[in-house]
Amino acid sequence: MNRYLAELVGTFVLVFASCGSAVLAGDKIGFLGVSLAFGLSLLAMVYAIGPVSGCHINPAVTVGILITKKMDAKYAAGYIAAQILGAILGAALLLLIAKGAPGGYDPSSAGFAANGYGAHSPGQYGLLAAFLVEVVLTFFLVFTVLGATDVKAPVGFAGIAIGLVLTLIHLVGIPVTNTSVNPARSIGPALFVGGWALSQLWVFIVAPLIGAAVAAAVYLTTHRPDVVIGVKEAEQALGSEQAERRSE
Question: Of 110, 138, 180, 221, which has fewest CB within 10 angstroms of its CB?
Fold first, then answer.
């Protein structure tokens, strides 16, 4: 259970700290500050829980890692369930704190950092733009995760690359959808906003999963040749050795 608990805690931190920066301080720190909050929270969690669970804290990342066979399939459902629960708990605590402000806080009218399109997009972007940006930006994230944790990648630097790419992703995506690239992150706030957030939630589940699948496919294409070549060379060497033994 330790890996599931780690994923729950990591996702809790991501949602509470990152969405919290938007809800509690967004008017002071702006898009750049919120983007940095997402990147820094993920960077911290990579090193805090990475040794335990790999620090997916995102169902899309789990799907990408599952497709590339970098994890045992029997753990995938538990990871995703823990991530969603962690996101809900993080959003619940954030809302409790937000309601302590003078005049209270209404998540349905204030938005509560929920993801949306159309009238609920910060820049009033439509459905197609929202869907496309979520697919593309999730591709960036999952491909970076897969590449930075590859056996040939420099050891110890994965967290930096992943944290920086999440910051970049939010700089691009916040004006369009408030940036999801993470179904759990979207589910948490949406449950408390209700109404429009729940009706639009499907975009922020489907699009990131598509982006993750595309990232996994591209990763297997760009990184698999080295593995295949290595296998062929090993087979050829073994064949040569067996031939020499037969000739003796």
Answer: 221
Whether 58 shows a pLDDT value over 60: the answer reads yes
Number of other CB atoms surrounding residue 51 within 10 Å = 10
Reduce the DSSP state of residue 117 to 3 states and report it: coil
Angle at 133 between CA 39 and CA 150, to 5 degrees: 50
Radius of gyration of the chain measured on its C-alpha atoms? 21
Kindly compute the dihedral angle of the four CA atoms of residues 102, 106, 107, 111, in this order, to the nearest 10 degrees.
-90
> CA 33 to CA 170: how far, in whole Å?
10
> Across the chain, what does the average pLDDT equal?
91
Tokens encoding 66: 């599952």
DSSP at 102: T
Q: Which of 133-137, 171-175, 217-221, 230-234 has the lowest mean pLDDT?
A: 230-234
pLDDT at position 241: 47
Write out the two tokens for 46.
């990579």
User: Is 22 within 8 Å of 34 (Cβ atoms)?
Assistant: yes
Q: Does 125 score more than 70 pLDDT?
A: yes
SS3 category, 105 = coil
Q: What angle do CA 204, 149, 177 make, to 5 degrees?
A: 20
Whole-prediction pTM? 0.88
